[in-house]
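Sample log: N-succinyldiaminopimelate aminotransferase.
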Amino acid sequence: MPSAWKAARVASSAPTIFAEMSALAVRTGSINLGQGFPDTDGPDFMLAEARQAIADGLNQYPPGRGIEPLRRAVADHARRHYGLDYDPETEVLITTGATEALAAAILAFVDPGDEVIALEPFYDSYAAAIELAGGVRVGVGVFGPDFRLDTERLRAAVGPRTKALLINSPHNPTGVVLTRAELELITRLAIEHDLIVITDEVYEHLIFDDAEHLPLATWPGMRERTVRISSSGKTFSATGWKIGWAMAPAELITEVTAVKQFLTYVSGAPFQPAIARALNEGDAWVAGLRKELQGKRDRLAEGLRAIGLDPVIPRGTYFMTTDVRPLGYDDGIAFCRDLPGRCGVVAIPHQVFYDDVEAGRPYVRWAFCKSDAVIDEAVARLRQRSAG
């Protein structure tokens, strides 16, 4: 079987369940707390900038690596928030969302037979990208009930065929933010074994309570081996614009660019100046968003407790996890398939993100990036049906 067909088959479970749940939501008139996209838009000044760019005729191919103002804004953002210096001319690449940046980086550096260590449960595009490259995915558990990184398994997973570490923190779907000690272990392993590190940092600003985002590239010896990936979609509530970026030393960015140009070639011209402005001027807006999301997290958690579930409180992302066994289910897929018809609410089962299906079987992911009114209505439906 051609490898691309195999990748599509192996990685199909998460997209398939997303499509099934979305179809159920439409058919049953359910509130969709499954897929992770906000129901409000980003800052007004950013939206106005995009409209103006369209009116001004910025609708043709932008430069292959992205427009210079956006590359400069990405570099300035990294310096301002993390003290990381990247040359916008040679060390920044604009991509069609973080998903393309991840795929391009994996295809650039992973050869057939190479092993890629990733945190399990996996974001759903990782499986397809690794298999398209002919690589072998090695999962290291961030498993329930505590959802902490299995550091012993991580140490044991690194071997002679390991080529890369793929690290996403804050972590989707669990909401875990890796600790300083966990990140230090990752840096020691990467340096000791001379590994490429690809970091998925799309939720870098969606962190709560006392959590802090610490990019792996800030550790000594890590900048030169790390491809940092992020995007505007989560930070500025513009998931449909698909404007992402990769940052790395010039020789690594050149390799990623060589792949990217044959994936989408270039990305959304009129959105690029808008995201540049948002990165330069949007820190206060993002701080407000983070505060709002923390309130929404706590609002949904309270509602889930009221129906007998005990949510694992996330320190990042906009996803919350519950074990559904207290409600009489031992299988998250069965629970999520029943939920729309019974309660008019949609969630996503964890196990579609796992190789070790049993580890994810009882868990369900809920998205809280919705208006308070939507969250309240979802909770009211859940409480009414559970009471009945």
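Observation: The CA atoms of residues 102 and 145 lie 29 Å apart.
Observation: The radius of gyration is 20 Å.
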